[in-house]
Design a protein that fits this description.
Blueprint (H helix, E strand, L loop, with lengths): L2 E4 L5 H12 L15 E6 L5 E14 L2 E13 L8 H7 L1 H7 L4 E4 L4 H4 L5 E5 L2 E5 L12 E5 L5 H14 L23 E7 L4 E8 L9 E9 L2 H12 L7 E5 L3 H4 L14 E6 L2 H7 L8 E8 L8 E8 L2 E6 L8 E3 H8 L5 H7 L8 H6 L11
Parallel strand pairs: 4-5, 11-12, 14-17
Antiparallel strand pairs: 1-2, 2-3, 3-4, 5-13, 6-13, 7-12, 8-9, 9-10, 10-11, 14-15, 15-16
The structure holds coenzyme A.
Length: 388
């Protein structure tokens, strides 16, 4: 008989060893000394050996300009002796009621095996990619006027965080980067080698770029660019120029995250990503997820459908979604047989703005046209800049 339970301090060594085996960690490394704010679950076999783990990270994510409590799933690992017999599925599925109990309305994970999570209701809604770009290609056309770039210092930490929050509120999907998983708060930004801050001549902050210098100065040398946030084209161009100024000693940058803005600034096409890291979203508590997020203020929607969710019983049945004044509400209604059927994975795709109802229809996540749902969830494409 196997046992599934939360892991405690006495299980740290075993959990660490399983994680190291599963993910190829450094054999010389040791478990972290400071307890994490994450909650870990473990499955033990009948001899008391830990055979499976999963962990839940309490995060918040920006959706529609508002904070939505999100459970980040990580450290999913099954011992090689126990694989292929359902332990992975059990240890992930056990997180669903735990997340609902903790108030996480949605859940995100970075899968190595999509086939494990898709049948449990998570769906791929975005990708956190790494793209290698010749550093000389970053020199955007035109000389930026009235924007100056300098290296941020301690006194600029709040300013940099405010720029990140601005991006969070105006885009979709970013972590809020506060709460228990970020014990150092905005301060962490200064762990990068360089935080380049772009300001107007009168000192108004307009953007920043964070990067690590890397080693050496030959043809293999590369800057690791973590993020570039700009509130104007001028600020973006100034920050790109400051990166391009490394071209005498650095061949390329390894660029983390979306390149759609970059593609509109450069004179050459952005190369395809070197590494692709998809991320998946699940709606854990549909009522809470709709109530927590923001919607486009000009949208007014009233639509009914039946939700299909094989793993969350309270989702099953008929619902009415109303959106007005930037807020949404999902109310249970009497079960009717004539309602369109929407799969919970389809709801995740819509919620994230990652797909439209036409696509859902074509892949069988919706059983008949329902364009009103497109209007309800219309918004920016989602992005995440932190992996976990
Ligand atoms: C991935 C892993 C957790 C799967 O554990 P497991 O106990 O073998 O998985 P299960 O037996 O519960 O399988 C459940 C479902 O997931 C699917 N699945 C399992 N491993 C998979 C893989 N590598 N690729 C795609 N799908 C996979 C199975 O097909 C199964 O679906 P089915 O029943 O419809 O066939 C395990 O192989 C592992 O620890 N791998 C190394 C670490 C890792 O990749 N962790 C995941 C991090 S996101």
């Amino acid at each position: 008989m196997s046992t599934l339970r939360p892991l405690g301090p006495d299980d740290v060594e075993q959990a660490w060893a399983l994680g190291r085996l599963a993910f190829g960690g450094d054999p010389a490394s040791r478990p972290p000394e400071r307890p994490s704010a994450a909650t870990a679950l473990g499955e033990f076999d009948d001899r008391g050996r830990l055979v499976a783990t999963s962990a839940l990270h309490p995060y918040e994510q920006w959706w529609g300009g508002r904070r939505v409590p999100m459970g980040g799933v990580a450290s999913v690992a099954v011992h090689p002796d126990a694989r292929g017999r359902g332990a992975g599925r059990r240890i992930v599925k056990a997180l669903l009621p735990l997340m609902a109990e903790r108030g996480h309305a949605v859940s995100v994970l970075f899968p190595t095996a999509i086939g494990l999570y898709r049948p449990l209701g998570w769906e791929v809604v975005g990708s956190l990619d790494d793209t290698r770009i010749p550093v000389r290609d970053l020199r955007a056309a035109g000389e930026p006027e009235d924007v100056f770039v300098h290296t941020a210092v301690q006194a600029d930490v709040k300013t940099v965080h405010a720029l990140y929050e601005w991006l969070g509120v105006t885009s979709a999907g970013l972590l809020t980067r506060d709460g228990p998983m970020f014990p150092n708060g905005p301060q962490d930004v200064l762990t990068h080698d360089v935080v380049a801050l772009a300001e107007t001549g009168s000192g108004a902050p307009m953007g920043y770029a964070t990067y690590d210098r890397g080693r050496g100065y030959g043809p293999d040398s590369s800057l690791r660019v973590w993020e570039l946030v700009s509130r104007s084209g001028e600020a973006g161009a100034a920050l790109l120029r400051s990166l391009a100024s490394w071209d005498s000693v650095v061949e390329s940058v390894l660029w983390r995250g979306p390149t759609d803005e970059l593609a509109l600034s450069l004179g050459k096409p952005v190369p395809p990503p070197e590494r692709v890291q998809p991320w998946m979203l699940r709606i854990v508590d549909a009522v809470a997820a709709v109530a927590a997020r923001g919607f486009a203020p000009s949208t007014s929607v009233d639509v009914s459908f039946a939700l299909v969710d094989p793993d969350v019983a309270r989702h099953d049945g008929a619902w009415r979604l109303t959106v007005d004044d930037g807020r949404g509400q999902l109310e249970r209604i009497d079960r009717r047989t004539d309602l369109p059927l929407l799969h919970v994975r389809g709801l995740a795709l819509l919620y994230a703005g990652a797909a439209d109802t036409g696509l859902l229809l074509r892949v069988g996540l919706l059983d008949r046209p329902l364009p009103t749902l497109d209007a309800a969830f219309a918004g920016p494409r989602p992005r995440l800049l932190d992996s976990f």
